[in-house]
Amino acid sequence: MLYIVLLSIFLIDWYVFQAVKVISLKWKFKRAVFIAYWALTLFIAGIFVHWKIVGPAQVNPTFQKLAIVFIFIDYLSKVFAVLVLAFDDGIRFIKWINQKRIHKTKGEPTGKPIPRSEFLAKASMAAIAMPVATLGFGILSGAYDYRVRRKRVVISGLPKAFDGLRIGQLSDIHSGSFYNKVAVQGGIDLMRAEKPDLFVFTGDLVNNETPEVAEYKAMFGKLTAPLGAYATLGNHDYGDYRSWPSRLAKQKNLDDLVQVHREMGWELLRNENRLITVNGEQIALLGVENWGKGRFTKYGDLDKAYGNLPKEITKILLSHDPSHWDAKVRPNHPDIDLTLAGHTHGFQFGVEIGNFRWSPSQYMYDQWADLYQKGNQQIYVNRGFGFLGYPGRVGILPEITILELVRA
After folding, report:
1. Computed from CA positions of residues 344, 347, 353, 357, in that sequence, does the dihedral angle turn out positive or negative?
2. Residues of 95-130 as b/e, b for ≥16 C-beta within 10 angstroms?
3. How much of the chain exceeds pLDDT 70, in percent?
4. Residues 224, 373: one domain?
5. Is the domain of 289 the same as that of 242?
6. Residues paired with 275 in a beta bridge
7. Whole-model pTM?
8. 204 with 342, same domain?
9. Domain containing 377 — which CATH number?
10. Could you tell me the strand order of the sheet in which 315-318 lies?
């Protein structure tokens, strides 16, 4: 795998370097530009080799975050330059074929090589600048630009006592990615100001390890509600994406995370349910462990969470991954009225204008952001409070959800 990564780095940089040579052809300091260009390539390659030798767990976390962000932005931007250069090469190839045909007809030598277009070389550099500027803006402006999204959810058979009940939902905190505690506090304050009747969290409190949440535990522990605060686990909470010295170490990490939920006052539902009572009437709140389609973990047991609940009671399910809804929830339990999920982050990139929404996430998930309905069942997918990998958001902003239940 390392060899594939290194080969990809050098091929992309070699191709983009062709444009650098064209643009800097008349520069007095072009040699310094060439040295700096390839020195950066070797530095990035060295990072990957170092990670391979010592293991990512042994690398300074701050350096690792910064390096990942820089490499991601650098090479994503260069992909756009590659596309422009490929277009230029396509034109050059057509011209070369045509030139060869003409000279062959006249019985003349093939002719001079066709030079690369200086205009398209400059365009390729502009293609690099655009995503760098966009992604940079997403880091500086979008990462903590929390938006309160309110939605009315009409449920047939909802008890009268719950008509108008307000549920506050957060999802995908990913505390290990934060770098601005003041901004995080601002998002928490927005949720507290809404004063929901019931608070729920739909998973991914951390990226990989419980210690990530240590300095944020007290802050999130202030999120409470009169009818309780409930949570479920997400795919990142189990520590499945890092190496552990032993199975016991991994289990202890999960046990510690469960304890953190207790200390914050969030009741963790692990394939179980709770009855919520208001004025003598009840609804059921179910919570499953992570269940994701494809390569994602499948710890969730919906039948166990369902237990002996009567079919006629209104049911709300907390399930981190929205793919669970079509795969298991709807086919097996058509009486679960509302599912609350997260997981997708809306890809942290996209466009939302009025009712129009687009994100690469929609090519992976049928339900990726906001409210969806099929028959009498509905699912709300939270866009996420935090971020993972890329420390920013472009277009798809971090979300604080307020759902108002309405009796049909």
Report:
1. negative
2. eeeeeeeeeeeeeeeeeeeeebbeebbebbeebbee
3. 96
4. yes
5. yes
6. 284
7. 0.80
8. yes
9. 3.60.21.10
10. 272-278, 281-287, 315-318, 338-341, 377-381, 370-374
